Amino acid sequence: APVIWWVRRDLRLGDNAALAAAAGSGRPVVPLFIHDETVEALGAAAKWRLGEGVAAFARALGARGSRLILRRGAALGVLRAVAAETGAAAIVWGRAYDPAGLTRDKAVEDGLDGTGIELRAVAGSLLFEPWTVETGQGGFYKVYTPYWKAVRDRDLPEPAPAPGLIPRPDFWPASDEIEDWRMGAALGRGASVLARHASVGEEAAQGRLGAFAAQKIADYAERRDFPAAGATSRLSEHLSWGEISPRSCWHAGLRAMEAGKAGAETFLKELVWREFAWHLLWHSSHIAERNWREGWDDFPWSTDGDSPEATAWKRGRTGIPFVDAAMREMYVTGTMHNRARMVAASWLTKNLMTHWRVGMGWFADHLTDWDPASNAMGWQWVAGSGPDAAPYFRIFNPETQAAKFDPDGAYRDAWIAEGRQSPGQGALDYFDAVPRAWGLSPDAAYPAPAVTPEAGRRRALAAYQAREG
Ligand code: FAD
To answer: What are the residue boundaries of the Photolyase/cryptochrome alpha/beta domain, all occurrences included (predicted)?
Structure first.
């Protein structure tokens, strides 16, 4: 009897414990991806990117003589049906850690209880299972640095190679066609622009990691904050969809550290920020829903995502070049440099006094590297309402930030076309990506800011001081 390998956000053959368990069972393996309610709920860019990832992964499995079966519907019903059709005796999957995934998995476990089908969830997409990292008092970590100290010296097994053979079943159950899922439908014309900038699949992920470890990691600590420098790994979209395991990244970082490359430890620390985000989400799922800290619910944020200020922010038309460059970079590439994420998020939540949930939702709709943990932690950190938020009320000044991290204006030039003699391709791509209804043109005048950095800062500080009572 076959084993169903339920593929989720782990679109890889290498270092995949669920695949290893399935292939190692000696039974034929039926790889299955389900377009369930968690896929339905994805933002437009993430859903498109998942579709690309699933298609690439289906090709990779095909090249191994296996297949990826695609089905649509609630996971429990689909698993029941595929188990009945194939006579499967077992289902194995890589664990989820987010509330929606956990709810779905619980429904599957409850629903298949007593059917005799063996169910097995194995460690999936993290370096450290969230419940294995505890403070001296037995609770979870709420501050990054002690979390980092608690995990940095842990021994992690080397990443496991892809299994040599994925045993095939005697016959394949029916499968949907990925094209029929229309994963890019919500994206409109932006899909073809994103396609030019996305990096998809396990091979591409390994290529990025290899190139980063060989060329960039040494200078990573010094250069990672400069958005035009191309100095970061750009692995986030691969990590998000599980096209590479964090363990592969961790060991590449460790090897670079042993080779004396200066930036390697900083890279490991960033990988641990991702772990910390999942640790927080797993232990306190409300981080993705409401203010993590108490006392923030009265903060006078506007929750109107369609206000003129929020609309200008979303459309990269705030009149603050660093912020607008950031928003456009995301629209065109599906990712945004980390420094730019912080500055853009600060501008929305502080200077424009708009709720972080508005920004979190916009990012969720436009990031191809979206993950619920890092996005929620990032927004609450910047907004000041989150765990490990800056100890004082941090308001990034985009002009100071630009002077420091984009001194020659290369980042702003790369993404803003208005008022420039010969704008670059990325800056022009923006106008191809956005809905026509926005009525944007590279020949229009660049807007003046509705709020100056100084006025916005004063308003935000006053609100913060009022909150402090
Ligand atoms: P590198 O600098 O090369 O770092 C390596 C890896 O470490 C990244 O791929 C990522 O997995 C992890 N990492 C680095 N910085 C962070 C961080 N601050 N928090 C968590 N993990 C980190 N990251 C996402 O993957 N998905 C999101 O939805 C997301 N939303 C964010 C929202 C806000 C408001 C902010 C401030 C940050 C957000 N981040 C998110 C974190 C970070 O900006 C990206 O992970 C990073 O820019 C990805 O680029 P890179 O792969 O080149 O990173």
So the answer is: 1-127
